[in-house]
Amino acid sequence: MTMRALILGAAAGGGLPQWNCAAPNSRAAWDRSAAPRATQSSLAATGDGSAWALVNASPDLRAQIMATPDLQPRPAATHGLRNSPIVSVLLTNGDIDHVAGLLTLREGHAFDLFATEAIHEVLDANPIFAALDPARVARRRVGLDAPFELAPGLRATLYAVPGKVPLYLEGETVETGLVGEQTVGVALSDGARTLQYVPGCAAMTADLAARLNGADAVLFDGTVFHDDEMIRECVGWKTGARMGHMAMAGPQGSLAAFAGVEAGRKVYVHINNTNPVWRPDAPERAEVEAAGWEIGFDGMEIAL
Asked: What Å distances lie between residue 21 and 86, 240, 245, CA to CA?
């Protein structure tokens, strides 16, 4: 059986177009002209072709399920009136665009919710997530570098990547290069092939580069191309670095960082609505494609 992964949402928080944005990329997406539409960051994966795991639960999750037949209920005659092939959810951080979709899954379906202790503490502190009935939704605490079964035929291993706490937990001083349980990458494996999923990363370390090297596929944080592009576009004051995300360009960017990293496929995900790579004719897109990268899109399948 081939391990399969589906990009449910390729965009960063806000999606493309963002609901209140008329900047060039969003305008092109509203008009269905030079930029695609994309929902917020999430991945689905299966090891046996039947049971599926979600990696992050986007606020757009219901629409993503509607667009993905593999995730929809099976015939009632064989599976009952209420059923779902989704058997688990894994969280890579506590960001709104990765946890809000959990509330879509509150209608009594049993599944396992995997996260580090630090991320579970964020969920436990917010009473709204008590809507996930603990009698049906088992909250599984997993440690770093400890492989576990995420779904039948699919194992996952979490590892720390540089990042920061979610926006809603920021204090007066924000540390964007924290390395611990609050921001993680995940290695998905069927025992023969490995997919690395890192939708949020503030910097490339030697340990992280070594971990990603040799993967069959790497899906990596592509939030911004230029660190200051939100400022350039006059839609915000934060840089990519301030948000806890590497830029693609520049000496410290992901294009340079991956120069010595070999992978079967390299795909950018979690792409902000300001990023010029959304436009097929943009020189920035040509640059990333020339470096061997693909631009993720909603519905993109990675079959290994």
From this structure: 33, 18, 21
Q: How many CB atoms lie within 10 A of CB 207?
A: 12
Please tell me the distance from the alpha carbon of residue 131 to that of residue 122, in angstroms, as a whole number: 15
Tokens of 93: 């951080």
**Nearest Cα to Cα of residue 92 among 155, 144, 151, 134:** 144
Cα of 197 vs its chain's centroid, Å = 7
Q: Say if residue 83 is exposed, middle or buried (CB neighbours under 10 Å; 0-12, 13-18, 19+).
A: middle
pLDDT digits (tens, 9 = 90+) for 66-83: 999 999 999 988 888 999
Q: Are the beta carbons of 163 and 200 closer than 8 angstroms?
A: yes
For the beta sheet containing 301-303, the strands, ordered from the edge strand earlier in sequence to the opposite edge, are 137-141, 111-115, 86-90, 52-55, 42-46, 4-9, 301-303
Q: Which domains does the chain possess?
A: 4-298 (3.60.15.10)
For 33, the token pair is 């002209």
- For 135-179, the pLDDT digits (tens) are 999 999 999 999 999 999 999 999 999 999 888 888 888 888 889
Q: How far is it between the farthest Cα atoms of the chain? A: 58
| Residue 270 · residue 244 · CB < 8 Å | no
Rg for the chain, CA atoms, rounded: 18
Token output for 248: 């693609």
Identify the CA nearest to 38 among candidates 50, 30, 46.
30
The owner of tokens 């008329």 is: 22
Length of the chain: 304
- pTM of the prediction? 0.96
Residue 275 sits at the vertex; the CA angle it makes with 39 and 183, to the nearest 5 degrees, is 65
* 224 and 274 Cβ atoms separated by less than 8 Å: yes
| C-alpha separations of 201 from 25, 49, 90, 204, 217 in Å | 23, 29, 17, 8, 17
Angle at alpha carbon of residue 184, lines to 180 and 190, rounded to 5°: 135
Find the Cα–Cα–Cα–Cα dihedral 203, 204, 205, 209, rounded to 10°: 160
- Give the separation between CA 10 and CA 156, rounded to whole angstroms: 21
